[in-house]
Design brief:
The protein is mostly helical and about 120 residues long. It has a domain of about 50 residues. It is about 65% helix and about 0% strand. It has three helices and no strands.
């Protein structure tokens, strides 16, 4: 099969068009990736918003507030007696004494020469 001028010209034109379309196609792909990332972040933010709204609604309930005050802050009603259980702390173990390194007089002198301060 012999290549004619018109078929070569058509091939060159198609090659140039495909090369010209490659840049915008890559940009479109990058933008779609960016949109997907933004949608994921938005969904995570929506989930956090729902959780915080639920906590806010729970804080408006007086029974829930009383429960939190009792558990977290140790509040009691008038007439009630509060007991605090203190667990004994384990005795602190003494670190074994480390024998100081003994060095000869010339090692001490040399260390002062190398590090005068």
């Amino acid at each position: 099969m012999r290549l004619t001028f018109h078929s070569t010209l058509l091939g060159v034109i198609l090659l140039l068009l495909s090369m010209m379309a490659l840049g915008p196609a890559r940009q479109l792909y990058d933008e779609q990736q960016h949109i997907r990332n933004d949608e994921r972040q938005l969904a995570a933010g929506d989930a956090e918003t729902r959780q915080l709204v639920g906590r806010l609604q729970a804080m408006r309930d007086p029974n829930h507030l009383e429960l939190l005050a009792r558990q977290e802050l140790g509040y009691v009603r008038p007439g009630e007696v509060s007991y605090v259980i203190v667990h004994p702390q384990p005795a602190a173990t003494k670190a074994p004494k480390v024998k100081p390194k003994t060095s000869s007089w010339w090692q001490r002198a040399w260390s002062h020469v190398r590090h005068p301060w």
